[in-house]
């Protein structure tokens, strides 16, 4: 085909899209699309025929059908806050970015049912807010909650800081509306707590990163609001001690613990240096810091007293060396600030390689020791920082090098790959996962292909081929190009 | 093929099976197999070449491979306690029943991780017991727990009396080991709380009723044991009031409520008459009875006091007319006995038609009213009994007729079908499901085909064709024969 014919085809196609969503919602100018063609970390820069912004499920269905007829690929995009390049159009083929941001209606909230039905483009914080207005809680909480969208949270099976108590995104979805690759609307938007009428199709699309269809709406579980809270940070010597404290905390607080987070010494140093407004709450340093949040739906539940007792026992047992309990909202926020998202600040500090590994909870001491040893043996000048959700077995390893450490990006990529292998091998030996909550996207494809067991990869490819036989739904994600359907 | 050749083939095949599991574990005599060829309710009577009892995943894989090579169908069977004929071989083709009962090893319990890894044939009560020995709780609980097997619980996504707090079976599975139709072992037996490395394949097999593969082992979530408890039963006038009480109870007790169960007047009468040892705890009758169980992992949590306050407020608001709080284990059991499984006793009372509908929680008043009106309009002599998990939106409707009501089984089936349509239509209009927790099996196939939305049925059939292209895994279940893959 001549390039003229191709551009004619493309312009006919764009006219069709404009007829569906209206001219102003088909963006083609670089100045309008730039933000949506680059990933959150600024690592990937893509290309698309257009960024299209539908306002309804019906429009999405029509757009997807038009793309199916024209053989155009689709990259669904929510808040574009993902960390793995899962929403950037990177394949060398005609592609449309489907931004769901205009589908931001909260369709219904039912306090009696503790459910909320939302469109895919709703911002997570807005959903939290709508629940709070009814005296209820939507528990998903993560760094990007002010801008990430629920469709993206669902498509990446988002985790965050309350997984221990409430599960990850998958556990919070009751019903799902999805547009399939051919434009069929799969209406599974049920508000049911129990439904065994056939295969649970929604599970296919949760965590599928847009490779099997476009999530357009969901019915989510709500929970009683938390009315009493105790937040504490303590200093301790080892991950083993952290696990002992975890068992003790579960015995005292049961399911009231929503967060059980660990921070390694060098990560704490990094935060104190680079994140404005952070203050060390202790007189001295220690190898590890632990943050516990416990909450109760009852007003005036005696959590602070229980926490004091818990800490006194921990001192006595020699498990911790110092501790602080927040006694005001400001103090709670100050403690959380030491733990919360610092992705942006990494760039100031140097060249970083971030990981999102999970291992079985009890294997974390081995994981931490072996990863640190392995990386330092290969790269003695690395700063191996650790921070994570120790209650979930999900420790993020961030390896930091000085800005000038690598001659060029090839050197950096080679080192990054080598460190991936070191960390992934430890994770696999311990029965872990290379990606606990971030997903695979573009960044982790090679590592997934190397570590996933072959029988599982075969079934994954079968599913992809079944629901997206032309490989047009977010192509090139999850699977390496040469292994895709 | 002559019948001699066929029987030769069959005997060669049986020799192959015996070589895998040992002669004594390939049952072919009617006296040995009868129990396993009839369903729990005695409604279905099947036929099989053999009932085979493997002892390991490796043996299951070899058996399934042998069946694949010989073109033999497989019906996996756990405790055979299902209520929908999902584990009975009913297709007119050579079939093997795969009983998992010898695979009853608890492979590992980790208190530190709050996980347990079990083989498919473990009896539910044994898993509960193994957790309790470590001071932990495995929360799945249902009438048949003394004999049902966890593989069956997983394959039917079992519900029960603690779904409100802990979710159904699906929410309790961390990892799954499955043997696929060609004998491939899909080893997803991970002990991870978070794992976003690709599609979550285990979800396909949970609730698939053995139609996509054989579940051989699972890693399950455990929870802190319940150390304080309050159980109460109250009398009330309406389902609306029950929902008001539900909202109030959630506000007072939050997630501490594990069971919120409703019993209709005629069901209560039935229980008191037919279930030995049951005693009415109130002086008078009332239209509805509500059972609430709240639990706390803390010892001496002031639940009884809170329950007394809750009941006092409910009296004052005119929501209940009488109430009793259990003050001993015996009283707790006496209250639960009024609610618990009476499947066997139905046969004494007459001809029954049981349903397992769910609707959105807030739609239950409409559901109850419209079902009762609809059934009584068509069958004025019916006794419409209701009992269920009102906190989950799952009300079991049991329609009872005198023994002599129908001239023959055809009459009974015709009435049963007509009543299904009445109830299912109400459920569909309210956004419900025809089977909340029992599954589809054989019994509910026709109703599923009639009520499930066509787009979802298409994807269900695609999944079946993808994982079981020869339709050998529990064929004839879920899908009506002429619509199966």
From TrEMBL, chains A, B:
Key word Flavoprotein present: yes
Cofactors required: FAD
InterPro entries, per database record: FAD-bd_oxidored_4_C, FAD-bd_PCMH, FAD-bd_PCMH-like_sf, FAD-bd_PCMH_sub1, FAD-bd_PCMH_sub2, FAD-linked_Oxase-like_C, FAD-oxidored/transferase_4, Oxid_FAD_bind_N
Domain of life: Bacteria
PROSITE patterns recorded: FAD_PCMH (PS51387)
Gene Ontology BP annotations: respiratory electron transport chain
Family stated for the protein in its record: Belongs to the FAD-binding oxidoreductase/transferase type 4 family.
Protein name, as recorded: FAD-dependent oxidoreductase
Naturally occurring in which organism (per UniProt): Ancylobacter defluvii
């Amino acid at each position: 085909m001549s390039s003229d014919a191709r551009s004619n085809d493309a312009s006919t196609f764009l006219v069709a899209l404009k007829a569906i969503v209206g001219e102003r919602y088909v963006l083609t100018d670089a100045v309008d699309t730039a933000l949506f063609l680059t990933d959150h970390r600024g690592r990937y820069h893509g290309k698309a025929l257009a960024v299209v912004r539908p306002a309804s499920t019906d429009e999405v269905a029509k757009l997807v059908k038009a793309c199916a007829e024209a053989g155009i690929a689709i990259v669904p995009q929510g808040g574009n806050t993902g960390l793995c390049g899962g929403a950037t159009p990177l394949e060398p083929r005609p592609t449309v970015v489907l931004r769901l941001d205009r589908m931001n209606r909260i369709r219904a909230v039912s306090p009696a049912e503790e459910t909320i039905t939302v469109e895919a483009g709703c911002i997570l914080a807005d959903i939290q807010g709508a629940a709070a207005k009814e005296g209820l809680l939507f528990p998903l909480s993560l760094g990007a909650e002010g801008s990430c969208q629920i469709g993206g949270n669902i498509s990446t099976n988002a985790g965050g800081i309350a997984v221990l108590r409430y599960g990850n995104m998958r556990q919070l979805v009751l019903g799902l509306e999805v547009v399939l690759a051919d434009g069929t609307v799969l209406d599974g938007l049920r508000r049911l707590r129990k439904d065994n009428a056939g295969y649970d199709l929604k599970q296919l699309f949760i965590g599928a990163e847009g490779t099997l269809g476009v999530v357009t709406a969901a019915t989510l579980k709500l929970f009683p609001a938390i009315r009493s809270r105790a937040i504490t940070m303590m200093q301790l010597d080892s991950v083993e001690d952290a696990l002992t404290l975890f068992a003790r905390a579960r015995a005292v607080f049961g399911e009231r613990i929503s967060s059980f987070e660990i921070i390694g010494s060098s990560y704490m140093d990094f935060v104190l240096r680079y994140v404005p407004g952070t203050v060390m709450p202790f007189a001295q340093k220690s190898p590890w810091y632990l943050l516990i949040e416990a909450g109760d739906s009852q007003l005036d539940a005696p959590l602070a007293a229980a926490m004091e007792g818990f800490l006194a026992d921990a001192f006595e047992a020699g498990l911790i060396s110092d501790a602080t309990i927040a006694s005001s909202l400001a103090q709670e926020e100050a403690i959380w600030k030491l733990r919360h998202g610092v992705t942006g600040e990494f760039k100031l500090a140097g060249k970083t390689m971030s990981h999102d590994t999970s291992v079985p909870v009890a294997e974390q001491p081995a994981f931490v020791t072996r990863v640190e040893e392995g990386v330092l043996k290969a790269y003695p000048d690395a700063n191996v920082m650790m921070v994570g959700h120790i209650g979930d077995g999900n420790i993020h390893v961030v390896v930091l090098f000085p800005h000038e450490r690598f001659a060029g990006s090839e050197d950096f990529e080679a080192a990054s790959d080598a460190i991936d292998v070191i960390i992934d091998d430890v994770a696999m030996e311990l029965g872990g996962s290379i990606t606990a909550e971030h997903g695979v996207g573009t960044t982790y494809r090679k590592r997934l292909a190397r570590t996933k067991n072959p029988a599982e990869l075969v079934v994954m490819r079968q599913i992809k081929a079944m629901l997206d036989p032309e490989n047009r739904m977010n192509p090139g994600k999850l699977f390496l190009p040469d292994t895709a359907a």
